[in-house]
Please model this.
Amino acid sequence: MPHLSFRDSMQLAAHRRQCPQYRLDPIQQRLPRSCQLHLSPRSHQQIHPQRRLQLGDLTAQRRLGHRQRLRRPTKMQLAGHLAKVNEVPQLKRILILTRHHRHPNKYFPCMQLPATIGPLDMSPAATATLAHVDNANFRPNLDISMAKSLFEKVWESHTVRKLANGQTQLLIGTHLIHEVTSPQAFGMLRDLKLKVLMPHRTFATVDHIVPTDQFAEPYADPLAQAMMDALRKNCAEFGVTFFDRASGKQGVVHIVGPEQGITQPGTTIACGDSHTSTHGAFGAIAFGIGTTQIRDVLATQTMAIGPLKVRRINVNGKLRPGVYAKDVILHIIRTLGVNGGTGYAYEYGGEVFDRMTMEERMTVCNMSIEGGARVGYVNPDETTFAYLKDRPYSPKGAAWDAAVAGWKAVASDPGCHYDNVVDFRAEDIPPTVTWGINPAQAIAVGENIPDPAKATSVDEKASIEEALAYMKFKANAPIKGTKIDVAFLGSCTNGRLSDFQEVAKYIKGKRVAPGVKALAVPGSQIVALQCAKLGIDQVFRDAGFEWREAGCSMCLAMNPDKLVGDQISASSSNRNFKGRQGSPTGRTLLMSPLMVAAAAIAGSVADAREVFAVAK
Amino acid sequence: MALAKITQVSGRGVPVLGNDIDTDRIIPARFMKCVSFDGLGEFVFFDVRKNADGSPKEHPLNEARYQGASILISGANFGCGSSREHAPQAIQKYGFRAIIAENYAEIFFGNSTTLGIPCVSASREDIQKLVAAVQSNPQTEIVVDVAAKEVRFAGQKIPVTIRDSARDALINGRWDAIGELLEGIPVVKTFTAKLPYLSA
Model:
């Protein structure tokens, strides 16, 4: 093994100072005890499988399989790998750099990989990535390992080329569009005299502006009608499939894509909507984009984008009764902060995610962006394949088998590099409610509203004070018992069949409290149809909910469903920003669907486990 | 397509302070009911600038001394939330040419860069210095030097950061990527063979 010369070690030190992965993440300082953050100043290192197992990650244990588990390479194997390494100058350099970092195995920096995953791959693809070792995104022991995260695999398989400014021209296999952010993009296409490059990979629906109490057109709001007309015209002119209201398949774009089987593992997806991260539940890399980028994707089926780091978020253990996927993501955001995910893709895993249904995984991935992460995903597994089987756009016959094989291969490899790993224990996650003006301002339903006097930083104090002033709440008061005016059940976060099914189980025979306006808005026409077949719509009507047509409804109030004045809404949606639900002074409390139902019935924020006698 | 090379932007500044200013606040959703971006400028920060009856609230953008400012100064995580390009469009159409903040939400940063609005990041202390200078003299001329990665004002100079790819795109006049992306189309077409789902 080569020794590190003084000059090399100085270079290494200089490199470490430049390399952002080496710096301690500021979020580490804010973490409560319930969450362990495995981040060291040398966080470029892969998490050693053995260490992972000690931490009780049973998922990793299962994935590794008993033969691979904890096995170190033999000296003979190491010698073989080292011989190969010495033939490649770049590899040699990586070895020199990484050896110095006191890796658990002193002989080989990525010991867990060559022996357990397979031989060193010297394919052109591997050497191509090695060519970038000198650039700013240099990751010391990543490329020789060949163990890759799903993010890296999808990124590589969709990379068209490097652009002059260092960004990647990334192929976007699936483009979803809706009426709010696309009309200007089509306008730009016309100005540039361009066509849609792959109209068969572009799918449209209408969701934000549709009135949920009116099906017939023209809509009362001429601006809404104009947007509807523009989308219809653009889709017809450019040959794009449009799931219009008359099709029976319309709905919130992030519900329609999965429902139709358009959302598939290992693909790239873009949509002019930040909640596009939802599609990551299938192991797709799904980006929310702006209108100019929509134009780019329409015209070239690609976009310019820089790489992301990957943070693995493990939730192990078992969620307590009455705790849902929504609580999981609210808890994660509360812990990591609204900008904790900036620069990252979130990979969710662990026992809780392994057990989750696709609809639950979608709820979590949906809100990745609320934690600042551009992308969130779950590795595809049998649950994913079972969901996709026989959907309208899913592959059929032999193509299905080939697709499943490909989807299995795209999941993150055991021992792959993560820039950062965060662990949560499922048992620590309570039913969670937001009390402030961003989704991280959340507490357990039994907790009191925070006191700015107890804030740990100037920033936190200022943000608590701003939120208290807007929400007209008092510090230290319990959130439980806060009177609500509106209950909203729906949105791309929680507007799927299982959300309504779960609530329907509990609200039978109960009534919405007098004075509370309760809306149940299915996320798509298909969800509405399924609910109707199961009689769920009637359960909601009987309980005093208004059962509406599919759409975004009160999540963002670009339609007639709006808060009035400073009304308080218990909402299953994703954002509690100032004015989000349509009134500049309206107030939003985010929570799980069952908690929304509990609030509707109690007339105030309540613990669903108490209202519905769920065994704690 | 020849785009302007944005190496530096100069003008007067206005501090719109606070952290986590989201895009719903920058442009409330109800103003997105439009099929073009024209006229969005007048609705920027609408709900924090105006009362329900349309009368002005206390807000820096309503202060006479800051009228005509073209550089927006703010706090951390600016532009979080919705991906709506309406937010940077409204900021640009109001007359802003550059933003100085502690840091930005990803999508907002990308959207702004694509419109040729440099979003530079400075430390909190430096932003406080800048804000103090602007508040004591709103006529202070600020130079956001993208090429040199610094902001100059009133004889002072503060270092700023900006992602290399964005800096390169701005100073070399390729902040709108469409030209380059179109050149890649022949390569894109070869992907149909590699990725079966593209043919579906």
